[in-house]
Batch of 4 targets.
Target 1
Amino acid sequence: AQRVTQPEKLLSVFKGAPVELKCNYSYSGSPELFWYVQYSRQRLQLLLRHISRESIKGFTADLNKGETSFHLKKPFAQEEDSAMYYCALRRADRGSTLGRLYFGRGTQLTVWP
Amino acid sequence: ETGVTQSPTHLIKTRGQQVTLRCSSQSGHNTVSWYQQALGQGPQFIFQYYREEENGRGNFPPRFSGLQFPNYSSELNVNALELDDSALYLCASSGGQGMYGYTFGSGTRLTVV
């Protein structure tokens, strides 16, 4: 079975401080992992996907298969980063290339001025 | 390029009633997924439609059903509503069979009383 765990429900940091949002997963196959973000009164939107190995809004996330983790990091947090962040794992259905997302419960990040 | 639109935005129903939620997928996307998000939880996969056929289902009873139309829009139907069905229902569309992420709608907030 697959599972995505975000251990912190709430995380607060001051502006300019580094931030790390933790995500651990359990999955027997080859994982495809994503970070989604939801700003206040906005819809859920894709932030990062691990296959792209990209940096968006200063955030990066590295897949660590040994530790089964996909932590989201930013060296200098900004007030506009305050939002709910969800880690998600995409699992392809058997016999199909289509997949479904499994989400963690989310971490509410607050960046204080 | 239009995004994913859902209607209605809010809905109040009585226990035992039936409800239909609607979703228009993003232009060019042929896959639609539905998720249920209870308060304080991450979205949970209900089912997915690809080319008008159900392709993957989560752990939801048969009273949750859906349709996808030739224009790739979709409906979620819930029969015999229960109080626990109160949640935010999210529709997500994707191209590339989901490998590149999903575009989410703003959701329908369903309250069952």
Target 2
Amino acid sequence: KQEVTQIPAALSVPEGENLVLNCSFTDSAIYNLQWFRQDPGKGLTSLLLIQSSQREQTSGRLNASLDKSSGRSTLYIAASQPGDSATYLCAVIHAQAGTALIFGKGTTLSVSS
Amino acid sequence: NAGVTQTPKFRVLKTGQSMTLLCAQDMNHEYMYWYRQDPGMGLRLIHYSVGEGTTAKGEVPDGYNVSRLKKQNFLLGLESAAPSQTSVYFCASSYITGPGNTIYFGEGSWLTVV
């Protein structure tokens, strides 16, 4: 059974710091991996999608990497800002399980000014 | 551009009551999903549909039923609500499955069962 783990569960940093969020999955047979952002009381917003054949994706200050063989992904946030404060969720689509995303429990990020 | 719309956004039910959550998408997506999100548990898949007229069970289907009579709508029903079904429910949709699949989520429905 595919399991997704995110470490740390919570992270507090001062504004301007570069930071890394970690995601690991137990079965490397994935179609893709997605990183989402969730603000309190809101839905999920897709940040980056990395297909199984790709190594990384970038969007603005965000960079996500994927190492399928080791079952790991990282989300790098450069020059963090208070507006980055949110919960970040990692999810994979398991190639054999069909269509649905399997989520980690998230990392709650707090960036102080 | 509405995307994925969920109704209602908030609801309080008494134990044993029934209700239906409606999810509507305007992107002509084939795939639709219902998740629940609980503290410390993350998002878990309840049911999903791979096209009009189809439904399938996810990780936590017990106590829920679903229907996909129209391609754009995916309904989640609670026949006899229990306090354990207090949760935030998210609907999602996608065009295809596979490596290039991007999933879009609704804003969530907060359900409290007392």
Target 3
Amino acid sequence: EPEVTQTPSHQVTQMGQEVILRCVPISNHLYFYWYRQILGQKVEFLVSFYNNEISEKSEIFDDQFSVERPDGSNFTLKIRSTKLEDSAMYFCASSGGTSGSTQYFGPGTRLLVL
Amino acid sequence: DAKTTQPNSMESNEEEPVHLPCNHSTISGTDYIHWYRQLPSQGPEYVIHGLTSNVNNRMASLAIAEDRKSSTLILHRATLRDAAVYYCILRATNQAGTALIFGKGTTLSVSS
């Protein structure tokens, strides 16, 4: 069964550094998403992406964040200058094609900002 | 998206049925009821969704009240692997591309 993959599984960075989280969505999906989950808290929507542009974003997704689909398979989330409060689990998801509105999530990247 | 209310936690024994309730008294006529779950240390996983009629799939059944103000996710025989946080989410559209808004969900514990 096709699945969403994410790399790296864990990332440790220093405050102020840039990080790029990578995702490979399911191949025939057209909609891509990033969510985050701070330890012990709810899963929070960050951004959705369709047709090479952002279609929806939350208040969390400020100027420090950006997303990109650099090629036909990868979908990335960049945090330009990480803060301590960016420490969280980041989940990529994709939907579309025959799955309709069902979103399929990756296993996540655990980001720790020191 | 309209608000849902779920119990914080529930317990079950292995191989017994589990009924996870969700109240959504402010649901609109076009809201779809979606259920996702999150196993420990994993990303959320789709379980089932419906609009008005009861739905069944290989994972679970969804029973929707006639007035649509509540619904129940039914796991017919709980296994240890079903221990997870279960989220009931209303979506104003069944179209792809819209955000999922997660609440706190119900933490299901399954004992052997």
Target 4
Amino acid sequence: NAGVTQTPKFRVLKTGQSMTLLCAQDMNHEYMYWYRQDPGMGLRLIHYSVGEGTTAKGEVPDGYNVSRLKKQNFLLGLESAAPSQTSVYFCASSYSRLTINQPQHFGDGTRLSIL
Amino acid sequence: GENVEQHPSTLSVQEGDSAVIKCTYSDSASNYFPWYKQELGKGPQLIIDIRSNVGEKKDQRIAVTLNKTAKHFSLHITETQPEDSAVYFCAVRDDKIIFGKGTRLHILP
């Protein structure tokens, strides 16, 4: 049972570089989410998707773009990385809008450092 | 928008004792309240959740209580064990899910 898989697990970038984080889920979930986790800040929602071909902004969307071309994949892009984007990024998926017995399943995170 | 406050930020309890973590929220329309456990190097994992029409839910050593009038809910862990050491997050959903800032729980031998 793979669940939610994030790649890469670690990455170091220089300021101004671009990269894409990949999230893949094998549970046929409709909803997918990208969060960032910073010390003392909990998890903050960056962008999310309620189905293939759709995306929406979360709490902290600036500096990030996303795409959901296939139902099982949700990509997070940084066009021009900044030190403030140093964080641990988590992807999650859920069958539908969150409710009892329909929880989010999280990946194990991508640790990103911007120098 | 919704605001979620979680306390304490750090909690140390003796093995075998109980631990209680509390959260308050601001939006009375919120109707779903999950709790997550995060172990080192892993993503958060749902441990228990409750809907707004229920006041209490229990699953073995873990229980959650909800007071909708006061807009607060709590996680209770009884007979704590070393494997309970982790970071715990409360969350609230109305339109989107909003997380608390987390509580680092240490179980002392």
